[in-house]
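Appendix B, Record 12. Input sequence as logged:
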Amino acid sequence: MKIKKSSGLISSTVKAALFAASALTAMHVAAANKPDKVTVAYFLEWPTANQAAQLNKTYDSKMGVEVEWRAFDSGTAMSAAMASGDVDIAYSQGLVPFTVATSQGLPITMVGIAVSYAENDNCVVNRSTGITQENASSLEGKKVAVPFGTVAHYKMLRIMSHLKVDSTKIHLLDMAPADSAAAMARGDVAMACGWGGALRRMKQYGSVLMTAKQQEAIGIRVFDVISVNNSFAEQYPELVTGFLQVTDDANRGFIENPKPLQPTIAKAAGLSLEDSNQVLALFEFPLKDAQLSTNWLGGTVQSFTKEVADFFVLHKQIPKALPDYSQYIDSRFYEKVN
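Logged structural output:
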């Protein structure tokens, strides 16, 4: 595969994070009850139902500790930050970066599902290319921008495989969605993949190669997870459950009466109200009963995580997959949510 930044970048990031995690564990001194603050990773331009609680500091008051929200541009960076101890909880981390991280031993665990979506993560073909599903093989030899080790990366490879495009002949560029959108605007790439606000900007210059419904028909599931640093979860399990409780309450409130919450969510996400509402309309936020069902943490997520890992091994994006991912998926925290 002709890649600007090799997939070894993922491995080197993982190794550095593992080293930092080991140092952190050695230095860590247990606090009596709670840490001074809890740091949560999240994405800008990615509006979610819990962001009213984020902006209104409901997490702080309900958890009884200061909650710092730190913006990231990729789930891979979230994994490294959690492993190093810089971040305690990651909200809406993509399943793919979570799978890549756990496949290579990073000490993080999935404790919930943040959001289920399909239309909000996709690949857009530049209209100047004239490329459609019928002539998708024309992407061979051209530049495609995609953030490596993400849901977008996984979807792109699955779509190429389904359309019988030889992905080894594509010039893949490892770019954050915002940079990919800019490259699309300049005409530097034939196709760009990303999510949220960046995806909306990409669509100004082209159209999706495959719709969400078409992707679901070939078995592509798209969802983000809530993951935690293992050391943090072991020391402060009540804070993990507390975070999930506030999130579940916020999700329920949004589902029951979204309109009053929409302006606050848009502000927290850094989007206009119109843009934020358009994104939110395509999201689903599973509540506790759904979270613990066989459709999610009760079995499906474990098997799908294994499927994703095996797919990335096949495409030489990670060296090996684990036999089973159940040890990295823990529903016990959500079981304690009221």
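Residues 8-27 form the longest helix (20 residues).
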